[in-house]
Each structure stands twice: as C-alpha cells, then as structure tokens.
Design brief:
Strand content: 5-15%
Helix content: 25-40%
Strand order of the largest sheet: 5-4-3-6-7-8
Number of strands: 8
Distance between the termini: 22 Å
C-alpha cells in the first residue's frame, strides 16, 4: 500500500510521518489526534486519605504494551500505602502481578470513571502509534508516570505535565510515584499543565485543522 503513488497519506503520529518518509519515500501530512473533554471531566485528586491508587492499563499479552514492567515497578511499592488497579480488555493476569482490583474490560463510557477513581497512571508501553491513556488521565485531573515512547512524546513533557523514567529503571519509576505522592507543589504544577495539554488536544480546539486536511 505504501508504494502506491496514487494515494495521499495522513497520519496521527509524528513518528509515523517520519517513518513513511524515511522507509517508503512517502510524503505524509500530520493530523493531530484529539480527545473529547466532555467525556473526561477533571476532578482534583485527594492525597492523605487512604491508599493511593495506581492504575495500570493494557493487555499483558501484547509485547508492545510492556505491562510486565508496570507490575515489576508496582510490586516495589509499599502495599500499606498503595493500591493497584488493573484495566485490560482481556482481564488476563500473570502470577507475579500484585493486583488489588482487576477491572477487566471496561465499557468506553465508564473508562473516565476508572481514571477518576485512581491517583496515578503508570504507563510503560514501548511502542504506540498515539498513546491515549496518559492524555485521558490528565484530562480527568490525574497524574502520569510513563516510560517515554514515540507515541507519547508529542505531548508528554517530563516535570511539566508528567514524570518520565527511562525504561528498565524500576527504582526511578518508584521514585517518580513517590514524588507525586509526597510533593503537593509538584502535583499542582502537573495538574494544571495536564489540564492545559488536554485542552490543547480537545477536538473542538483542533477541529478546523483536521477538517482542512481532508478538504485540501
């Protein structure tokens, strides 16, 4: 398909734009991906009352989702302070996963409620076309600790709207979670910048630029 000169290409990923150009000599126009903020209403999280909930999301059977790393990190957290929720459309787990609430497949219209029920999203994917969960979590007012990849690098900025750690450095990820849990000033900064990021990606904000791509 990529060798068909009669086709025009649009992509939602900056890295895919470069990949098509480098590997297939295809000129591709970038169309930003967006979010419906009416479905992901922000709610300020409260810390200090009960356990801090960590959300892990993704199919553990997918190599690219790298869910094992999430649990290798989560298993290092104090179980008296942290509660682990797991959301996956397969509901499958592995014996070494410490899970307090295995949500399984969640209907789309209930996903925002899951985000709002948790404090921090731990996302460890190694490859995504466009990574939605961190954006959705920020839109609901939650916090993100993530492993950087090409699908989230468009909008995640370490220390501004999230905390990033280098893949495989489990202790760095634990430290990031602890920083968010303990540092109210940092939380306020991440919260405000996270909402700003979601606003910039609102479909209503980018609607005209998306439509113009199809009209040219």
């Amino acid at each position: 398909t990529y060798l068909d000169d009669s086709l025009r290409y649009l992509t939602i990923s900056k890295w895919c734009e470069e990949w098509l150009k480098t590997d297939f000599a295809r000129e591709c126009r970038y169309v930003p991906n967006g979010i419906d903020r009416t479905a992901f209403v922000p709610q300020k999280r409260k810390f200090g009352n009960g356990k801090i909930r960590i959300l892990i999301e993704g199919d553990c059977g997918s190599e690219y989702k790298n869910v094992d790393e999430s649990f290798l990190i989560a298993n290092r957290l104090d179980p008296d302070r942290y509660e682990i929720w797991y959301m996956s459309y397969t509901a499958k787990t592995k014996p070494f996963y410490r899970i307090d609430n295995n949500l399984g497949a969640v209907p789309h219209d209930k996903v925002a409620d899951v985000y709002k029920s948790c404090h921090i999203l731990l996302k460890t994917s190694i490859l995504e076309s466009f990574s939605y969960p961190p954006l959705e979590m920020m839109a609901t007012g939650g916090y993100v600790v993530a492993r950087p990849n090409e699908g989230n690098s468009e909008y995640l900025v370490d220390g501004e709207n999230c905390l990033l750690y280098q893949g495989g450095d489990y202790e760095a990820a634990v430290t990031a979670i602890e920083r968010i849990s303990l540092d109210e000033s940092l939380r306020n900064k991440l919260y405000l910048n996270g909402l700003k990021t979601a606003e910039e990606r609102d479909w209503e904000t980018i609607r005209s630029s998306v439509i113009s791509m199809y009209g040219d």
